[in-house]
Amino acid sequence: MGSSALPPTSSFLSDKQKDVGFSSFCTQPSFPCSAQVSKKMVSKKVVSVMTPQQSERKPSTTGAVKTGMTMTEKIFARASEKSQLIPGENVWVNVDILMTHDVCGPGSIGIFKKEFGKNAKVWDREKIVIIPDHYIFTADERANRNVDILRDFCNEQDIKYFYDIKDLGNFKANPDYKGVCHVALAQEGHCRPGEVLLGTDSHTCTAGAFGQFATGIGNTDAGFVLGTGKLLLKVPPTLRFVMDGEMPDYLLAKDLILQIIGEISVAGATYKAMEFVGSTVESLTMEERMTLCNMVVEAGGKNGIVPADSTTFKYLEDKTSLPYEPVYSDGQARFLQEYRIDVSKLEPLVAKPHSPDNRALARECKDVKIDRVYIGSCTGGKTEDFMAAAKLFHASGKRVKVPTFLVPATQKVWMDVYSLPVPGAGGKTCSQIFEEAGCDTPASPSCGACLGGPRDTYARMNEAQVCVSTTNRNFPGRMGHKEGQIYLASPYTAAASALTGFVTDPRDFLQ
Q: Tell me: the pLDDT tens digits for 316-325?
């Protein structure tokens, strides 16, 4: 929807760029805006002594020159009640949703009480979403105490959306418990086009898939938002990524974002919006768009954003009854840089240790022996991620050669794994296929071992092992042991690697 109004451009591709189907070029001059540029060009020399004409001028033709705005700039303008904004401006924005979880919630609550008073009330009990999800299924007393603090606060403030868990022995006995916050936010209808969603987690940017501004904030900022519903934010410039071409059936959105991060580096989008458009993006499901936006922070991005379209609206039909108003980038909007990707030329990718931008083709790593596979997290633990893994396992007819851990993101995903038939698998569900392939039984929904956690966290890397994972970070110690090696990959590549015991190109089983 948003890709139809691209400004005319021209590109110069090197042979290497042509080979990977990826090019970048600047489409607009640097900031400041045209109004400021024209101001600088005014000479102090007197060029006329004529009295200015006094004829009437309509208000619409006076004042600053209006320039086109990007999606992110428009959302900032609406949230700050401004008619025009440019990158670099600092504005107070009205927040639509604030999310926090068990890791950062207690700190944010402590700051709120310290600054606003022990008896202060939050700005809006219906706009705060509190989701325990990180360190849940553990005997660690401090981790469990964090959830107790959230519960006490939500009871005290009468928070409407608190997804509590009390029975750790059987997650299904907790009707309110959801699981991973970023997937739960979408499933429970808290993500809406045109809105501002802030969360005390760096991967809050996942919600940008819904055409909204979503970003992670710190505990101090969250404490302030709890009391005021506002936050001072700087308008980010926008990088636009135009992805066209038919998506090969062996690629997933994880491959697309690994391609981009590998191209621009982990610092390439620092404090910038990353806007995704093009025919390929339009063909992606909502869950795949969530994967795309989820990892923009791994490139330093402030937020990722996808224009809302019929796919977005259909997903939201049974999830929210609140009104929302999508925004789209103007045809003359200023983009700091534009990148074009021919998706049809891409191959399955991995990010080698120890950085998300350490990109390599999966087939180039076929000699890397692995010890385990992990399929889960906000990035790779959604229903469609497990469907993809099950599809490859079924197509192969083989059993895994290394321990393969499965951690559904939410209760709903867990139910889907056990109830939805996998297309082309003769009515078999994901869980049936996983069992036949020799995988571990799907675990209780949570963040699991994605970020290590207490030593008793399910599937945590307590030894120096090599893991292929559908998660989002592969820094030393990220999943537990500081000498562990993590290869980030799509669910297809993770499943294929589980079958061979080596990093494996999924085309070996899908074609």
A: 999 999 999 9
